[in-house]
C-alpha cells in the first residue's frame, strides 16, 4: 500500500497534535480506570503486569515503571490483589522477592474495554504505508524512551 498525501506540518504543529492526543488519552485512561474499578495508577501498573506476560515482574520492577516508591507499589498491589486483578507468587530464585501475575479474568475484563479502541487504531493504521508505519513506530519508540529519560532525570521518587 502506498501512503496517502499528507498535509505539510511544522514541528510546532506536530507537538500541538501530540499534546492533544496525550490530553485525550489521559482523560480516557481516567474514564476507563473508573469503568474497571481502579485508579489510573493501579490500571497503569496492571497494564505493565499484562505486558510482562510470562516474565512476571517484581514489585520493584513495577515501582520503577510506574515511577513510585516501593512502599507505594505495595499499596497498589494490595488494591489490585483485593480487586482480583493480580496474584503474588514467590520468586523461584530469590525467596525474599515476589513476582506479580495477572488474573486471566481481570485481563479479559480490561481487554474487553480496550479492544474496540485498538480496533479503531488498527483501522487508522491501514491508511498508512508500511514505510509510514515504520516511521511512526520509530518515533513512538524514541519519544517513549526520551520521556522515560526525562522523567528519570527530573521527577525522581527517591
From TrEMBL:
Highest taxon listed in the record's lineage: Bacteria
A biological process term (GO) from this entry: response to stress
SUPFAM superfamilies: Winged helix' DNA-binding domain
GO MF annotation terms: DNA-binding transcription factor activity
Domain HTH marR-type residues, every copy: 1-145
SMART domains cross-referenced by the UniProt entry: HTH_MARR
Name used for this protein in its record: MarR family transcriptional regulator
Amino acid at each position: 500500500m502506498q501512503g496517502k498525501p499528507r498535509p505539510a506540518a511544522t514541528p510546532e504543529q506536530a507537538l500541538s497534535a501530540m499534546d492533544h492526543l496525550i490530553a485525550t488519552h489521559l482523560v480516557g485512561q481516567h474514564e476507563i480506570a473508573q469503568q474497571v474499578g481502579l485508579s489510573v495508577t493501579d490500571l497503569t501498573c496492571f497494564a505493565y503486569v499484562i505486558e510482562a506476560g510470562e516474565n512476571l515482574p517484581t514489585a520493584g520492577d513495577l515501582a520503577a515503571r510506574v515511577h513510585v516508591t516501593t512502599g507505594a507499589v505495595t499499596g497498589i498491589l494490595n488494591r489490585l490483589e483485593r480487586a482480583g486483578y493480580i496474584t503474588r507468587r514467590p520468586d523461584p530464585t530469590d525467596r525474599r522477592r515476589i513476582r506479580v501475575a495477572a488474573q486471566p479474568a481481570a485481563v479479559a475484563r480490561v481487554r474487553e474495554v480496550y479492544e474496540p479502541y485498538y480496533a479503531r487504531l488498527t483501522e487508522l493504521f491501514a491508511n498508512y504505508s508500511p514505510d509510514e508505519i515504520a516511521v511512526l513506530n520509530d518515533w513512538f519508540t524514541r519519544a517513549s524512551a526520551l520521556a522515560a529519560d526525562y522523567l528519570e532525570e527530573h521527577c525522581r521518587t527517591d
